[in-house]
Structures are given as structure tokens and as C-alpha cells.
Amino acid sequence: MAKVETMTKAETSKKEKSSSPAKETKPKATTAKPAAASTTKKAAPPGGKKVNPYNVFMKTEIAKVKADDSSLSHRDAFKVAARNWAGSDKNPKNAS
Fold this sequence. Notes:
Layout: H1 9-19, H2 35-39, H3 53-68, H4 74-87
Helix pairs in contact: 3-4
């Protein structure tokens, strides 16, 4: 069985006094933040997002690769298209 401790009234009042704060604290003022400002996305720049040559090439090339071989998964078609990009004249690194 568990031992139950009992306190006298004097011990109880000492404990209550020692656990109470010496000074009263004031509640902090809260500032209201606009919820819409933090949850909204930034607007796209006029004319839409700037697309680089790689993205344009890959979009069309993956479609071509899948049209040639429809049994390829997207991942495999992407690998083939990436290899094609490496040798493409549309790739800025290949333009001399």
C-alpha cells in the first residue's frame, strides 16, 4: 500500500506562501495579426512566370518520347528526354 503523507495547517500555509509569486504579473497585451496576410500567396508577375528553355524543351520532349513509346513510364521518358536535352542545340551550354 502507498504511504499517504499528511500536513499540518502550519506546513500547508507555509507551502502556499512560498509557492505564490511575490509580485503580480500583468497579462501581456496581444496584438491582432491579419490572418489573410500570412495565408495568401504572392501574385504572379505580369505576363506569368518566366519559363526557361529547359522547361520548354522538357515539356515538349517528354510528350514526344511518350508518343513514340507509350509503354515507357513517366520516369523513364523523363530520363530519355534529359539525355536528349544534353545534346540538344536548344541547350544554352551547347550553343557556340
